[in-house]
Design a protein that fits this description.
The protein is an alpha/beta fold and about 220 residues long. It has helices at about 1-45, 115-130, 145-155, 170-175, 205-215, and strands at about 55, 85, 95, 105-110, 135-140, 160-165, 180, 185-190, 195-200. The protein contains five helices and nine strands.
Length: about 220
Amino acid sequence: MSQSANNNSGGQSGQNILAVVILAAVLLMGLVILIAVGVAIGFAYFATREGGQAQRVDVPKNLGPAIGPMQMEGLPVGEPAPEIEGEDIDGNPMKLSDFRGKVVLLDFWGEWCPHCVNLIPHARELAEKMKDKPFVLLGVNSDRDRERVKQFVKDRHVTWRSWWNGGSPTGPISAKYGVQGWPTLYLIDDQGIIRARWIGAPPASELERAVEEWVGKVGT
């Protein structure tokens, strides 16, 4: 009886040790997963605050039959720019094709996007520098509060017109152009062909150089 009791005691002790080992392994694995997730979130958080980094907004693959399938990777350089027909933030009608014959810099922006806001001073300088040339800067605004954006435009001296994107980053214009990162800029030549695209704010010198290059080709 004594020997049997000792065996049972030893077996129970072994089972307890095994249970502790398994529990410790599970807890350690959970801790490793939590650390990995935390590191990934941390990298993503700081990456969105580096200069020129686009802010990503997750967009559904299909916004319905009125809009059609999303161009998830954005529109390719060398292809015609799709027509944009709608109204500006003040409610006035506006069409992209009305600016045919000029180089168009199309800026997808929002007040909620700090990199978009940081781009405004240089965009203003570029528009002023090119005001007597066949060039126009146009925006596509993706904010939700229209009245607030109107005031923002006045306060920040945004001198160019912007389409109203339906009050959403996933509105019909950004869907048509496959925009998921803000800011996104398209450079469209005087014949309506996309010649460059930037996802995130480009260096000022690079943007200005590209605009001047294509403005210099108008009419040639």
